[in-house]
Amino acid sequence: MTITEKILAAHAGLDRVEPGQIVSVKVDVALGNDITAPIAIREFRRVGAERVFDRSRVVLVPDHFAPNKDIPSAEQCKALREFAREQDLEHYFETGEMGVEHALLPEQGIVVPGDVVIGADSHTCTYGALGAFSTGVGSTDLAAAMVTGEAWFKVPESIKFVYHGELSPWVEGKDLILYTIGRIGVDGALYRAMEFTGPVIERLGMDDRLTMANMAIEAGGKNGIIVPDATTRAYVEGRAKRPPVYYRSDPDARYAEVIEIDVGRIRPQVAFPHLPSNARAIDDVGEVPVDQVVIGSCTNGRIEDLRRAARVLRGQRVAKYVRCIVIPATQQIYRQAMREGLLEVFLDAGCAVSTPTCGPCLGGHMGILAKGERAVATTNRNFVGRMGHPESEVYLASPSVAAASAVKGRIAGPEEVVA
Amino acid sequence: MRFCGRVWKFGPDIDTDRIIPARYLNTSDPAELAKHCMEDADPEFVAKMRPGDIILADKNFGCGSSREHAPIAIKAAGVSCVIARSFARIFYRNAFNMGLPIFECPEAFDGIEEGDEVEVDAGTGRIRNLTRGTEFRAAPIPPFMQELIADGGLMAHIAKRAAKG
């Protein structure tokens, strides 16, 4: 069996499962945010439920339109707060301790290897980087799991991606996943598990792995997953709030497809509007002036991302008439960036540094685009109107490319800025 | 159950941001969401469509965010059902869970034009183009999903199961 099949089988109380089989599984963590949880809470009440199945396993993070952007958003956050208080939830994160959910949960050790995690947020697939089965669902699925502690799944077929070769300078986890989505398309992994393997993945740090698993949904994937190794164990030790279980795929595991990728040929990538699959090498971008740069999000708001951005921005200035907004994804990352002097680098360069929020990524607040404006963002989606006006544009890239673009005022590779 | 209405066509990879842009997600009120249904795909859609009309889309309809506001907006706008070449998985799941009828049919997109009158038989999956006299068949709904529909959605399904003990 693959790692995905093994985790689902274990949580279904079965010895083995086959792709296509429908199973009901025990859920280790069920997550909601200020956009999706209000509907789940309404459904929870509608069926007359009184208590959540486990107060330590239902996690609420108001991070999308928080700190509250307007009165209706404040009402939604209030609904979460009141529910958390009523149910005495162990993991509710108020502004001040809140972070972008998919950076926060791994950091706090709330999700651990071997888990089944569902979240009413499509980027819940992020935790696959730890070797968990983790997938996005809607509010009704969240409500059902809040009541029963269970969720139903069709066991997905898996695609195995094997990354080999040597990474070129400035090529990061973001570039690998954008390249991959560019190759297979936005529905290239529809309904399937994406298992990222190979020597390149084994050498990749945890932050890069989280970036890759995060964007599995952009290829239509049910989940992204990486078999845990020494890097995973080092990350999990000292954080895990529950004992992790380390699964690995069997040597004779069956895959619907095996895709080999030689990373030596991959250059920093930029995904053009309006699909994440419109990826191009930085060399093929041409002259694209930008109005705004966003560095942050559940995809690229972690400490390694900020270090990379700072490496490019150190001693530089953001181009005139360009806004560069840096958003550390959690309070812990914010503090770490402060200690390492990264915030000072950003401030010196003329960046705005924001408290953690999903804000601009989904066109919520804290950096909305006007008609005709163009942004380079380290986020995950460049759909029509994603960051603001339906006639604005989002280009997806790594923190290094985003930082270089802020300096140049047009989409630029980091080697144009750093000697 | 049968659905009968005029068809509105949309292209491939219609994401949930286009179905209901995030700028309207500071509420989950179906009537409010319905006002902005499909707004960034076709700003005129809500003004043009009539209750009972049908959305027909190319591949990967509903990709992107997990927001259930997307099927809620479509249902509350009065769309009777959605037919697509294929659906993104979270949207597919959400639609069954909250009770928006959807039909996967690879052939319908090429055989039906915008404005055609179409009738869908939910039981048999038969899609009839009344304007052109042609017929298509939707992919069968998996038995487990049929059970969900029969029970009236996921929450009703679990309530029923709980009642059985």
Describe this entry's structure for a reader.
The complex is a heterodimer of chains A (419) and B (165). Chain A has 419 residues and is α/β, with parallel strands linked by helices. Chain A contains 14 helices and 18 strands. In chain A, the strands form five sheets. A five-stranded parallel beta sheet of chain A has the order 4-3-2-5-6. In chain A, strands 16-15-14-17-18 form a five-stranded parallel beta sheet. In chain A, strand 2, helix 2 (37-46) and strand 3 form a beta-alpha-beta unit. In chain A, helix 6 (173-184) packs parallel to helix 8 (206-214). The termini of chain A are far apart. Chain B has 165 residues and is α/β, with parallel strands linked by helices. Helices cover 34% and strands 20% of the residues of chain B. Chain B is built from eight helices and seven strands, in the order βαααβαβαβαβββαα. Chain B has helices at 16-19, 30-34, 45-48, 69-77, 89-98, 108-111, 143-151, 154-164, and strands spanning 2-10, 54-57, 81-84, 102-104, 117-121, 126-129, 134-137. Chain B has a seven-stranded mixed beta sheet. In chain B, helix 7 crosses helix 8. The radius of gyration of chain B is 15 Å and the shape is globular. At the A-B interface, helix 2, helix 3 and helix 5 of A face helix 4, helix 5 and helix 8 of B.
Question: Can you lay out the helices and strands and say which pair or pack?
Answer:
The complex is a heterodimer of chains A (419) and B (165).
Chain A: H1 3-12, E1 22-26, E2 29-33, H2 37-46, E3 58-61, H3 71-87, E4 91-92, H4 101-107, E5 116-119, E6 133-136, H5 139-148, E7 150-154, E8 158-164, H6 173-184, E9 193-197, H7 199-203, H8 206-214, E10 223-225, H9 230-236, E11 257-262, E12 269-271, E13 279-281, E14 292-295, H10 297-300, H11 303-313, E15 323-326, H12 331-339, H13 342-349, E16 352-353, E17 374-377, E18 393-396, H14 399-408
Parallel strand pairs in A: 2-3, 2-5, 3-4, 5-6, 8-9, 8-11, 9-10, 14-15, 14-17, 15-16, 17-18
Antiparallel strand pairs in A: 1-7, 12-13
Helix pairs in contact in A: 2-5, 6-8, 11-13, 11-14
Chain B: E1 2-10, H1 16-19, H2 30-34, H3 45-48, E2 54-57, H4 69-77, E3 81-84, H5 89-98, E4 102-104, H6 108-111, E5 117-121, E6 126-129, E7 134-137, H7 143-151, H8 154-164
